[in-house]
Design a protein that fits this description.
It is a single chain. 36% of the residues lie in helices and 19% in strands. By secondary structure, the protein is of the alpha/beta class. It folds into two domains: 173 residues, 3-Layer(aba) Sandwich (Rossmann fold), CATH 3.40.50; 90 residues, 2-Layer Sandwich (Pantoate--beta-alanine Ligase, Chain: A,domain 2). The strands form two sheets. Strands 1-4-3-2-5-6 form a six-stranded parallel sheet, sandwiched between helices. Strand 8 and strand 9 form a beta hairpin. Helix 5 crosses helix 6 and helix 8 packs antiparallel against helix 9. The protein is globular. 41% of the residues are buried.
Length: 283
Amino acid sequence: MEVARTRAELAAALARVREEGRTVGLVPTMGFLHEGHLSLVDRAADLSDQVVVSVFVNPLQVGPSEDLSAYPRDEARDLALLRGRGVSLVFAPSAGEMYPGGDPVVTVSPGALERRLCGAFRPGHFRGVLTVVAKLFGLVRPEVAVFGRKDFQQAVLIRRMAEDLELGVRVETGPIVREPDGLAMSSRNVYLSPEERSQALGLHDGLLAAARLWEAGDTRCHRLVDEVRRAVAARPLLALQYAEAVDPLTLEGRDEALPGTVLAVAAFCGTTRLIDNAELGRH
């Protein structure tokens, strides 16, 4: 497996791929990989001839109240996992290599969609996400890029960016991968104490309860959201940030839950922020 740490090394490796006429699939990550990330690698392998995985903790998407240095890192483990999944090219740049002139003057604005869901609580976050993804698209020039559905708003914004700016990249999503008890896999789960880990299941339990209510015929979004809120409120260590039922394309709130409506929730479990979501009618 080749690990490119500079733009020049990446370009040389990709030139060989292009010379052989192979298509490229990109999986951007912040490292500290788990099975959710690796499922995206598998999906990219199905959609392209050559998978490129980027491992880069992006400072632009870390808010002023968040600690960049506290983000979990284990590059040796990440590389071993990727090698085991058959990945042959990893791009693992430093911040200086990714942003050689310092913070970029020109960035990608998410527009009004930034003010919805997570964006309302993390100002500047999605601008940082879109900017680094746009740079990765430019450096790698993939035919397809794969992102996880757990970060639902992120995937919506990246797809809109690719379409609105004609970037020539097909954006695909992979399903949420869960622990056996239902907790959505996340690099942040490592921060949870055993008691917090148990109570964090309130997010998934609430989504399941709301989905059951919808399947029983109740399409009133406020009733579905109330189910999520009740499940979270029943866990003393969970502090709800938001629970909403939204259109999967516009992220606008809905009154009636049609098939495809997304129930999205975010909460703090102790000091750890967790997100989860469910698309009604999708199993």
